[in-house]
Design brief:
By secondary structure, the chain is an alpha+beta fold. It has two domains: 3-133 and 305-396, RlpA-like domain (Barwin-like endoglucanases, Beta Barrel); 139-250 and 292-300, Beta Barrel (Ribosomal Protein L25, Chain P), CATH 2.40.240. It is 27% helix and 22% strand. It is built from eleven helices and 17 strands. The chain has helices spanning 3-16, 63-80, 92-104, 110-117, 193-197, 214-223, 252-257, 271-280, 282-289, 369-377, 392-399; strands spanning 50-52, 118-123, 127-133, 137-141, 150-153, 160-161, 178-181, 187-188, 207-211, 225-229, 235-243, 296-300, 319-321, 332-337, 344-350, 360-364, 379-389. A six-stranded mixed beta barrel has the order 3-16-13-15-14-17. Strands 5-9-4-10-11-12 form a six-stranded mixed sheet, with helices on one face. Strands 6-7-8 form a three-stranded antiparallel sheet, with no helix packed on it. A hairpin with a 5-residue loop joins strand 7 and strand 8. Helix 2 (63-80) packs across helix 3 (92-104) and helix 2 crosses helix 4. The longest helix has 18 residues, at 63-80. It is globular. It starts with a helix and ends with a helix. GO terms for molecular function: hydrolase activity, hydrolyzing O-glycosyl compounds; peptidoglycan lytic transglycosylase activity. InterPro entries: 3D_dom, MltA, MltA_B, RlpA-like_sf. This is peptidoglycan lytic exotransglycosylase.
Length: 403
Amino acid sequence: MRRGIVVAALASALAVLAGCSVIPESKPPSPVIEQPPPTVSVESAAFANVVRGPSVGALPITTTDANFALSAFRESCDWATRKEDRSGLTFPADWAPACAAARTWSATRGREFFIEHFETARVGDGSAFATGYFEPEIEGSRTRRPGYDVPVYRVPDDLVRAWPRDMPASERTGRAPLGRTDANGDHVPYYTRAEIEEGALAGRGLEIAWAKDPIEMFFLQIQGSGLLRLPDGSLMRIGYAGQNGHGYTAIGRPMREQGLIGDGTPYAVSMQGIVDWLRANPDRASELMRLNESWIFFRELTTDGPLGSIGVPVRRESSVAVDPRFVPYGAPVFLDMDRNVADGLWIAQDTGGAIKGANRFDTFWGNGGDAREIAGSMSSSGTALVLLPKGVVDRLKRAQPGQ
């Protein structure tokens, strides 16, 4: 189980964290390499085959793992008991008994808590795929100074959602696209990564900080939050505040197709392999990073961890990003993966641009050197069970045709 490997690192990591604010719409995708398609091609778990799994007590959940998960679950209760569940599996009232009990439950009896209040469900065939994300720490400065030339921008005022004037009303469905208004009054796409790097936002006072290394800043944008180690040794936490509206492109795929990483090269098909190649080939690094036109805007954070998409800090080895159409926010999830470090109990507290479909997960590994290593190499298959409040599975079965 993963807790035995890094529980000491968790304690030291939490001791040095500081900073946060505001709920992002969705953090950017964590994976650097392309991901497999969803295993269930339906719109939500309510339309997937949901069946009862084994009892919670039969799962190999360690006491330490359950205790950490209980702490994370408590932080999710305000969301779970008030917000609509997009998966269609639960109602806010379903979570009320467990959340009420969690407020006073002993912090050392987490396993008993989950056995008492939850049952398991398998969504679809339960075949799961998991990646990892982490909170990078890179060098930065609150003010521009020699060697710190990479801007960390807040959300620009001219980044807005609107419909292009020439788009027929019949085609205006869902949310209007992000963009800006040009000199002719037309709504056009916002600036790309290349345009921003070439100065499209310069001189507007949007910088909240300056980073030292463009490659490190590129990957901090992919993770969606991070720590800036300031020249005086202090830390500034920054978190996702918005995005320029352009699609995310995982640069690992074109790099592998071009034979730059992978078999026959010194560079692994992993985040670290990509970083090593970019550093060894500075003349092409910018060109390849600009294949990802997405640009992330940040805000300074003041909590003790980066915020997930439900507005609570994500916790190392306890928080997992999910597709909320298939897993209720706040729900415990039990993973049994071929990378044993990811086995155990997680709490659904985040989402991401690449986290799509049933049983697709992105596990959070905190910050520090081991976090980067574990998250950067996490690409694991296995099985998943969603833990739902007791009584929900029977209700779902009665609602299924033929029951």
